[in-house]
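Private note to self, pasted from the team thread so I don't lose it. Backbone tokens:
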């Protein structure tokens, strides 16, 4: 079984990655380490920098993942600022900003960065399209899941297995798993 370190403080992300990767014989081990987050509008650039920084600092083969919620009616906000916006105004704040908006389309984007110590990072991306709900719904998941409608349910109403069939993160991770499975490490 291949073992990869997932550098993140977010246990929700780790649960999702484990559920997916272990099906494919890849063991995911969490490392809590705060790498500096690059300021950029591009998630792939942020993930690439984080993976290279962490692989070098920890001297381990790592993945990092950066995700964001993009809402076209708000000009793409919160996008790369999703973590800060979640901490400050949260789901209630986003619902408030959306209260007069007819276009409720939104998407999550994920960028996974993989890096070996001393090497350059490779990135994999995924997108999940949905809508912003009119209210907070569901007890599962984390972050914006309870306001992100996918068909008639929010991500917060889906089990990990259900979310992993359609989420941005699982799409990016599936590309990574396919690539790493073919690589001899
Ligand atoms: P980061 O990738 O950890 O920087 O995440 C940015 C923000 O988006 C954080 O507030 C996360 O909670 C939120 N977020 C990231 N991925 C998801 C997801 O799959 N569902 C809901 N919120 C997410």
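Design output:
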């Amino acid at each position: 079984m291949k073992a990869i370190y997932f550098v993140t403080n977010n246990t929700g992300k780790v649960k999702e990655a484990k559920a997916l990767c272990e099906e494919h014989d890849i063991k995911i081990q969490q490392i809590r380490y705060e790498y500096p987050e690059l300021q950029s509008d591009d998630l792939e650039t942020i993930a690439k920098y984080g993976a290279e920084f962490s692989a070098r600092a920890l001297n381990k083969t790592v993945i990092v993942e950066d995700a964001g919620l993009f809402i076209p009616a708000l000009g793409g906000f919160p996008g790369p600022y999703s973590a800060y916006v979640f901490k400050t105004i949260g789901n209630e704040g986003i619902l408030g900003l959306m209260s007069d908006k007819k276009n409720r389309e939104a998407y999550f984007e994920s960028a996974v960065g993989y890096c070996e110590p001393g090497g350059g990072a490779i990135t994999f991306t995924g997108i999940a399209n949905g809508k912003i709900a009119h209210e907070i719904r569901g007890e599962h998941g984390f972050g914006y899941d309870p306001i992100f409608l996918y068909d008639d349910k929010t991500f917060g109403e889906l089990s990990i297995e259900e979310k992993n069939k359609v989420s941005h993160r699982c799409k990016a991770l599936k590309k990574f798993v396919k690539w790493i499975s073919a690589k001899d490490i």
